């Protein structure tokens, strides 16, 4: 399981020992180190790059709010949690003004771990410009049922769990099922967004997205196919371009059609994972899709993913010869794990961390990150 990195800020050695004892063995938290309540803090934050700073104010040190303020202003994206002796109204007010996300009084110390995780998840969901170009990755497959949604959901959750800011857009406008696989009650969807607003900024979009417990931001598809026609390619283009600066990765789950909306999403993407099963209908559909992508000069973005990979008359060489691109990734066949994820709404990257499907997702996630780093360093 990915852990939230926490940097403790406390002068007292006994406090540090106590926090190590409380948080050291937690699965969701990595207590990476401590800094003293002085200028050392900012250097340590730069070094450790934590997602959460846990400030401990034992002696009602007045400098603590000043430190919180400097972290808040200098390090957008870090959640500040303040552990205090008392959470009087005065302390709460000062903490709020200083950018503290959560004040935890000593009486709530048993809840500390949960409150830290909560603060990290909320901070991840906050609309803060990341200051870097995100990667927009579409998951497409020319044949129905090739595993697009399974891959999109698990890849996005895995990236979000690693502390990155990640969004997943369900652009299967007729029969989207991302909400099912994530067990999300889709109160708002892309339809409410485009019907209520003629133009929208990031706060508008955020108010129609749902938050998954992994920290993933999800824009759900319409609840009925009859609404699909209300979403236009202009909407898709605007949503992607408005969201871009606020996320490290945006994943898009697409249907197998080539409607204007799907094409707009593909053209707005930096990478396309073309998912196919190892059979003749999938091979033929992938070939047709690649032809269109070549005409649109989008073929360079494509990585071929063979999913649900089991015995077949078609070899790797057959696929690569017909499609004229190499196989980028193989995801093994594991119907039990895949089904469980679908039926329980639990991504297998969380509930089955050791499964072969999770291992395959890890490889794809690493590949996406490497590609992003290569591009940033060029
Ligand atoms: N690697 C795998 N091994 C076994 N079963 C899989 C695998 N990947 C996906 N499946 C199963 O295949 C079925 C289709 O998967 P999924 O819904 O992700 O496909 P899709 O391409 O999104 O379908 P659609 O075209 O309808 O949107 C599901 O029952 C899923 O559990
Ligand atoms: Mg699907």
Description:
With 378 residues, this protein is α/β, with parallel strands linked by helices. The chain has two domains: 4-125, Response regulator (Rossmann fold, 3-Layer(aba) Sandwich), CATH 3.40.50; 135-377, Rossmann fold, CATH 3.40.50. The chain has 16 helices and 13 strands. The strands form two sheets. It has an eight-stranded mixed beta sheet, sandwiched between helices. Helix 13 (316-323) links the parallel strand 12 and strand 13. Helix 10 packs parallel to helix 11 (260-268). It is elongated and about 70 Å long. Residues 148-149, 172, 177 line the site of magnesium ion.
CATH architecture of the largest domain: 3-Layer(aba) Sandwich
Strand order of the largest sheet: 8-9-7-10-6-11-12-13
Shape: elongated
Record field, number of beta strands = 13
Weakly predicted, low-confidence segments: none
Radius of gyration: 23 Å
Number of domains: 2
Main sheet, how many strands, which sense, barrel?
8 strands, mixed
Helix proportion of residues, in percent?
40-55%
Relative strand content:
15-25%
Provide a count of the helices.
Answer: 16
Q: What is the terminal separation in angstroms?
A: 31 Å
Q: What structural class should be given to the helix and strand makeup?
A: alpha/beta
What ions, cofactors and ligands are bound?
Answer: adenosine-5'-triphosphate, magnesium ion
The CATH class of the largest domain, by name, is: Alpha Beta
Mean pLDDT across the residues is 90
Can you identify the CATH superfamily of the largest domain? P-loop containing nucleotide triphosphate hydrolases
CATH topology of the largest domain: Rossmann fold
The secondary-structure element order is EHEHEHEHEHEHEHHHEEHEHEHEHEHHH
